[in-house]
Amino acid sequence: MSPNTSESGSQTSTRTGRIELRAVTKRFRTPSGSVHTALRDLDLVIEPGEFCAVVGPTGCGKSTTATLVAGLERPSAGEVLVDGQPVRGIGKRTGFVFQQDAVLPWKSVLDNVAAGPRFRGADRRIAHERARDWLRRVGLTGFENRYPHQLSGGMRKRVALAQSFINEPGILLLDEPFSALDVQTRSIMSHELLSLWQLTQPSVVFITHDLEEAIALADKVVVMTAGPGTVKAVYPIDLPRPRSVQEIRFEQRFVDLYHQIWEALRDEVQVAYARQTALAS
Amino acid sequence: MSLTATAATADNERFTLDPSVARQNRRRRFGVYASRAAVFVVIFGGWQWFTQLGIVDQFFFGQPTKIVKQAMDWFSNGTPYGSLWSQIGVTLEETVLGFVIGVVLGVIFGIALGRVRFLADVLGPYIKIVNSIPRIVLGAIFTVAFGLGLESKVLLAVVLVFFSVFFNAFQGAREVDRNLISNARILGASRGQVTRQVVLPSAFTWILASMHVSFGFALIGAIVGEYMGAQQGLGLLISQSQNTFNPNGVFAAMFIIAILALVAEGLITLLERRLLAWRPPVLSGDAPGA
Question: What ipTM does the predicted assembly reach?
Answer without folding.
Answer: 0.87
